[in-house]
Hints:
Four copies of one chain form a homotetramer.
Chain A: E1 2-3, H1 14-22, H2 35-48, E2 54-58, H3 61-72, E3 77-82, H4 86-89, H5 94-97, E4 102-105, H6 114-121, E5 131-138, H7 149-162, E6 165-169, H8 173-177, H9 186-192, E7 195-199, E8 209-213, H10 220-226, H11 235-246, H12 249-270, E9 283-284, E10 287-289, H13 290-298, E11 301-302, E12 304-310, E13 313-319, H14 326-338
Parallel strand pairs in A: 1-11, 3-4, 3-5, 5-6, 6-7
Antiparallel strand pairs in A: 2-8, 7-8, 9-13, 10-13, 12-13
Helix pairs in contact in A: 1-11, 2-11, 12-14
Amino acid sequence: MYSFRNDYSEGAHPKILQALADTNMEQTVGYGQDPLCLKAVDLIRRLCAAPEAAVHFLVGGTQTNLLVIASALRPYEAVVAAHTGHVNVHETGAIEATGHKVCAVQSPDGKLTPALVESVVTSHTNEHMVLPRLVYISDTTETGTVYTKAELTALRQYCTRHGIFLYLDGARLGSALTSPENDLTLPDIAALTDAFTIGGTKNGALFGEALVLAKPDGHFRWHMKQRGAMLAKGRLLGIQFQALLEDGLYLELARHANELAFRLRDGIAALGYPFPVASPSNQQFPVVPNAVMDRLSAMGYEFEVERAVDDTHTCIRFVTSWATPEAVVEALLKDLASI
Amino acid sequence: MYSFRNDYSEGAHPKILQALADTNMEQTVGYGQDPLCLKAVDLIRRLCAAPEAAVHFLVGGTQTNLLVIASALRPYEAVVAAHTGHVNVHETGAIEATGHKVCAVQSPDGKLTPALVESVVTSHTNEHMVLPRLVYISDTTETGTVYTKAELTALRQYCTRHGIFLYLDGARLGSALTSPENDLTLPDIAALTDAFTIGGTKNGALFGEALVLAKPDGHFRWHMKQRGAMLAKGRLLGIQFQALLEDGLYLELARHANELAFRLRDGIAALGYPFPVASPSNQQFPVVPNAVMDRLSAMGYEFEVERAVDDTHTCIRFVTSWATPEAVVEALLKDLASI
Amino acid sequence: MYSFRNDYSEGAHPKILQALADTNMEQTVGYGQDPLCLKAVDLIRRLCAAPEAAVHFLVGGTQTNLLVIASALRPYEAVVAAHTGHVNVHETGAIEATGHKVCAVQSPDGKLTPALVESVVTSHTNEHMVLPRLVYISDTTETGTVYTKAELTALRQYCTRHGIFLYLDGARLGSALTSPENDLTLPDIAALTDAFTIGGTKNGALFGEALVLAKPDGHFRWHMKQRGAMLAKGRLLGIQFQALLEDGLYLELARHANELAFRLRDGIAALGYPFPVASPSNQQFPVVPNAVMDRLSAMGYEFEVERAVDDTHTCIRFVTSWATPEAVVEALLKDLASI
Amino acid sequence: MYSFRNDYSEGAHPKILQALADTNMEQTVGYGQDPLCLKAVDLIRRLCAAPEAAVHFLVGGTQTNLLVIASALRPYEAVVAAHTGHVNVHETGAIEATGHKVCAVQSPDGKLTPALVESVVTSHTNEHMVLPRLVYISDTTETGTVYTKAELTALRQYCTRHGIFLYLDGARLGSALTSPENDLTLPDIAALTDAFTIGGTKNGALFGEALVLAKPDGHFRWHMKQRGAMLAKGRLLGIQFQALLEDGLYLELARHANELAFRLRDGIAALGYPFPVASPSNQQFPVVPNAVMDRLSAMGYEFEVERAVDDTHTCIRFVTSWATPEAVVEALLKDLASI
Lengths: 339, 339, 339, 339
């Protein structure tokens, strides 16, 4: 039995656990203002070439998304997101619970473009409608695609022209940065967005998202506390990001996940199963006959059912991670070939 | 240098770290529905003699408080809390951010009584005012006091009579349960409240509050997700509570904290410093001359400044924890005696 | 110059003003609990054959919509609406500001069907997504169409089966009830919905919506006050609805509006201009060449621009009302013919 | 039978009704952007000597209060109000429903001073607490007292020094401006506050508050729409304020109310009944034996019961208005003398 359901099925990379153990009995002040967090903040600023940026550590992704959005917008302002965007469908109305509408726009590949954003902006013309003022994108997207530097630059330019806040949800930023289709660096992303996250939960940490704000908001910690997003032992987040980022572990883990995803993708494709949307990252979405899907399940492989394609075919999702053993991928391909 | 600022200045008790390491590479489903969490849920139900109760694991206290309150109340309903209550003053308006007023009532010792609650209830008489419908108490309270069984029973009866939800914030429940003034058991508390928490953060866990709901709300997980309070690797919470509760570690750690607090209290009192409110738990609030306070700081002891008593005296707070070494307490007393 | 922009371009029907003048110096208690309101409540219950219904008077439509929705839903629950629904696009995120997501579904004619609602319900399957729990419809719809008894009955049955609250926004209910395509009566609507409104603002009142709740919510007045929706001199609403409803004035005014709309529609159609969606009510949406549109404007006719159809054609909206003079319609048709 | 319960027991002053009738059949655009509203806006700017101010017309007081506060504050910011303040106790948590805490401070006479505000500001010191950022005062206050120019100036200076928004709720501003203790003018108030209202509902209008914002918020109309506070036939508000303010009617009506209140106060005082708080405005609060209170009721006089003073005495409230006949006041005094 092996689960390809997600990239957060295990605990943490052993180096993370070790870092927590190593610092365990140090006494520090709480709430993320301890020396361990400050050190991680410095490291992230350096990696992003953004010495003026504010860095905050949060426990989870939905928490981070709702915080960034609630802190960036006035009550009547709204979010623009792809219809597949995490904030649109997978957060139980977390954004709306802070009072803000999410204006979803159909996207063929999970990405937004200036033209897609423009279609929302131009249809909201007066005080009887919300004012779209924040663009939410994710990289990798929920469908596994990644942004190029040209694409992100185009969005940046559009947003700047229209006074729109550009937020990139990097829950799977490691997988994006190590994707063969990626040409963005951390400094690029820091320079091109108003806020973005470096996701830890899905790339080897126990939990945690590092939020980078290009323009510090002097009261962001008030927002955090108000939404229940300030961890008492905030240092736990700093320690983990220090361990992930100080020696390149973050990219190394993501590269492993991607490589196994591509091995899986190529193997499945070689067996003739189609992939409707090409994914250059650690989520792969093949379409298989329902009988094949059932056999794979019976063999002990776990995966997500993405959607029914027709009466006899289903699009399923395999996710690889830092922890996925190569042998399991090979076994799956062999088992699949045998069906 | 030693900090008595709080009971969450270190990481976690070594058994917690060990439990996390032991289970680290197990694959589980996410969001708290894994076997490790289910096992901890069962344990808590058993310890509380509450087989029908719902148990949810949350990361932090403010998060838990706002969730319980937002899920229990209709929009026009309000909370009754002591003026010292954590939800009233120390959560940056987290409750109000979910739309609910906190009706604060002056309390001499941080506790609520039926009479104090009644004073709020009877002054809210019609649709031009909020409807008080949830009583928030903490045990231990923010001033270190604890509820007796008679006191909690009286509140329960009042709340039942008036259709009011009774919620006990047990961020420091370990210290309360092991206090010499306590006569409540977990089953008592489970029977007498509508919801309560067993706090982990302040008693040896890395983080975590176990929330026990007497009457399960079938959609509580929807509330959790919406407020960003659902941990992806939810198992981390189950693992910790299992370790804390399976062999009595939870009470053992709290007992240690209390004993050192009493040693500290008795030693300080013996030196002639008064304690305005007697505390039978791990927070102690002596009043010292400012000069003494400054000397203690200069000697490397850290503590919270609670409030200025007069121009030359200050009430300060010492908090002991599972991690406080006896030797440090003795050293502090010796140093204090030398001033 | 004449405006067909809307059905609330004038003050009120003279009988409304007279009723306000007649009762002006009577002293009553405030907030809608006076004898004048109670009398109107009784009248509405009688007209709806709903003696148990609760009736509340509100000043405006958005106010009423946000109130009904905020009072009916729990925080994680959501609204299903047609993409054209007023709550989706024309209320500046008023529903989201109360914390609830609006799940919009593409509708060909502004109406919802069980199948359309089902498509939303079945795609929201777990605690990571909102729970659709209220269906919002309007009659007439924003595109002028009306529901038949069979259609409303089908929706009712679907909602009952799925525990969904069915709310009908009757801002233009007069126009619906007097439409040739309508076969619904007030008692039908009261029996088939959980809540609906009888709109006054767009049918001869100075302002006002009468909200009918099938199941009274004992604390609805608390909701009203909290949202700033309780009029101090609440009687003003009761007086107006009494005047509108006691002698059939309400339907008489709506019938006038419809008749002139049909005269307009038939005249415009006779000139060869198409109507993409057939409307049996007081809003008419012809498509005209831009040059014709500009000429009409230059002649002093005002109307809404609905949307660009192509580079040279625009869909425009004409709205007639209780106050529209027949002569103006004839003049417009003559002028249009002359272009 | 006569009611002294409130100053909104009747409809409107006849000149208001006449103004509505006179303009009834004019066609205008909706939502407060018509020529009638623009004319009233100009008039108010002129009367306030505030040509740059924004003026918005709202239907009710709670609606206006929640709008001003929600538009002025960031999520973690809070209101400072007297414990008697309308936003604190009489609006069913309307402010909290927009997410903001009201920090109430005990006030001996319903007024705030820099010292009282300071006591709140200095006790909110870090990100674990809300940030007080708006001072709410009312003039007249809920206890009938009025602010002097010196008092308002002192508050202004305090607020400016601390970056605090100063909002004056003028629901009874007419009574304040015509009080013998008042030395403030409309231009004074416009210059000394960030926002204030000129209340219509309690001084002769059918309904309506004119809100004056010293610094226009370009998106205030978005806020209005979102909260359901934009009246479709917005002109109804402009027409009423034009009628009230163009020829001094507003002050004339308030002066009448005050004079009758003083006649009532002096007559009651002459009979030996005490007034715990001296009120120089149209609300009067004598203390009477319960037997006297009951006899007055039996004689057909209606008034509010403010609070029990002791077992045998009650503080009651009489409110006079533009509509109170002198003869009724004399009759009440005669009847009271006969008890």
